Each structure stands twice: as C-alpha cells, then as structure tokens.
Amino acid sequence: MGEKEMIVNPYNVEGKINYERLVKEFGLERIDDKILKKIKKHVGEIHPMLRRGIMFAHRDLNWILDEYEKGNKFFLYTGCGPSGPIHIGHLQIWYFTKWLQDKFDCELYFQFTDDEKFLYKNLSYEEIQKWTEENMLDVIAVGFNPKKTHFIVDTKHAGIMYPEAIKIAKKITFSTIKASFGFTDSNNIGSIFYTSMQAVPAILPSVLKGKNIPCLIPLGVDQDPHFRIARDVFPKLGFYKPAIMHKVMFPSLTGINNVMSSSKGSVIITANDSPSEVKNKINKYAFSGGRDTVEEHRKLGGNPEIDVSFQYLKHFFEEDDEKLKEIEKNYKSGKMLTGELKKYTIKKINEFLAKHQERRKHAKNLISQYMLKV
Ligand code: TRP
Description:
By secondary structure, the protein is an alpha/beta fold. It is 51% helix and 13% strand. It has a seven-stranded mixed β-sheet with strand order 3-4-9-8-5-6-7. A two-stranded antiparallel sheet has the order 1-2. The longest helix is centred in the last third of the chain and has 24 residues, at 338-361. The protein binds tryptophan. Tryptophan binds at residues 10, 78-81, 111, 113, 116, 198, 217, 219, 223.
C-alpha cells in the first residue's frame, strides 16, 4: 500500500499513517509547546504522553482551557466499543483520561457502544452484553473517580439518548456518512444512524442540567470523523462544539506501521494477559530494531525508532524520561541488546498489568455505582 492510500476512520485504519498529513486533512491543530505551557500552568505538570507527542493534536483546546480559566469547568467524554478483550492501546488513552480527570477534577461520561458493536460485528446481542460487562471491569480498574464518573450504555440509556440522537441525525445526510466512513449502499441502516448516538454524550450533560457545559473528548485519532461530523451539527442545535485531544494509534507487535487492533486478527496484548503470556508475545512477536548478530549489534547499534519494545516504553510503559533516554542511547550505541530491551519491556508491562488486574478483581461490585442515574 503506497503513501497515498492512508485510510483512517473508526471502521478502517490502513497504510502507514502520516500524522503531518492527517493534521492537514482532518483540519486538526498540533499540540505544541505553547499549549503545553498553558496546561502546565493549571495542573503543575505535563503528562509523559503530552511531552512525547503521543497526544499529538487537538481541536479547540485553547478555548476549553480559556473557559476553565474563567471558572467555566468542562466535563470529559470518552468511550469503549465492547466487542472483545481490552488491549493496551485502549488502556493507554483511558489512563491518560484518568490523569485529566484527576488534574482538572472533572466529571467523566463514559460511553459503552453496545449498539455500535452489535451493528458492525458478527456477534449476537448476548455476546455484546457479555463484553460490555467484561469491559466495564477494565474501565473501573483504571481507577476513575466513582463519584464523578458516569457510564452510559447505549441500549440501556436509550430513553434519554434517543430524543437527542434524532435531532442530530436529522442534520446529517447519508452522503456525508458515506464519504466519511467509506460506506456503500449495502451497509445496514443501523450503522448509518450510529454516528448520532456517539455524538449524544458530548451534549447529554448540558441537556440533563439545562445549561451549556463545555466538553473535552480524549480519543484515538481514528474516532475523530464521528466528531468532525457532530461538531458541525451541535451549534445548529444551540450547543458548544466539543474540544478534542487526539492520540496517535498504538503500534502493533509486528511493526510500528500497523496499529494494534483486535478486529484484524492480529496478536494483541490484552489487559488481562498473564505475565507469561506477555513474555511470550513480546519475545516471539515484538519487531526488533536490532541487528542480526550480537557482533553486528555491538558494532553498529540498534534502531529504537522501529523497535516495537522501545516504542511501547515510549508510548506508555516508561514514565521516566531520563530512563527512556538512557535506554535509547544504549540501544543505539549497541551497548544494550534486543534481548535486554525486551526483558525490561516485559517487566514494565507486567508490573503495570499486575496493578490493573488487582484493581479489576474488586470492580464487579462497583458497576452500579458508576452507572449514570437518570
Ligand atoms: N466507537 C468507539 C470504539 O469503537 C467507542 C467510543 C464511544 C468512543 N464514544 C467514544 C471513543 C468517544 C472515543 C471517544 O471504540
């Protein structure tokens, strides 16, 4: 697939992603030093994912920070499509969202799109319900503030969502949906309507409280098209456009030019993998930027840019900048071997997952606490 055929939408990510081009084509703004300073001014620190450009772009972030400064607080909105196990790419954006919630002390509306996954996947309604409950445990394990976090399950909260969804849907044409997602006449009619359901939580708190409240949506950039469409509609209905923060896609084990995805049948590291599963997956599949032989590696050094283990540390699992720099230097110079880098990465992932899995054990009783009450 050539440079030109990059596809990035919620239902298909293909080709090597050129983020510079994506910023232009989607009409995003870069997260730059100026905006990082502004965030730091409010919360006193900058999350590693911001410092390292993993959260790389935004829409209207300046506006939402200005409003915050004026005392007009925003709420957060993100979500999960429940059709299989949670992988580390999902965890990455959710843990970042938790950081935002803690730092800005805000409400979070978390959507479970059981309708979407039923419409798009070859799974029964019952199977989707099972995944919804399973995935909820992982979301709870992230540690969101139970007093300020509200789960929305599309089919369960349909009564309050549907009136808003139809207002949104009435202002979106089939041709817009076709062009944005590459749909054809053979797509089922539910999938055509679905964008309006994903739009609703961005305005639902405003509807419920009877006043406009700014909304910030952290997401993987593939989800942006839903909100690009919805942002055009909201002002027509008298609401603010939500602000958005975009994350780069999480690299697949087999190479940084593919994305980690459960739907493409590739090997994923899930939130509930055992230590030995993580070890085997990294050792067996994680693409190495090292040389073919130890002698060559010692002499010429490895390439961290394309090394999946190093990239996992950079994306998420190594918070300490100094440590990351040291690893990069030693790997490049040949002092550190691929085996050593993998061993360290396995240790970091397993330490992280052990804590996540421990919290998950106690999550079941908390579900009702997190559910949005209406
Ligand atoms: N559609 C998303 C998925 O398949 C889930 C989702 C719903 C979401 N609302 C969201 C993701 C808002 C980011 C932001 O995973």
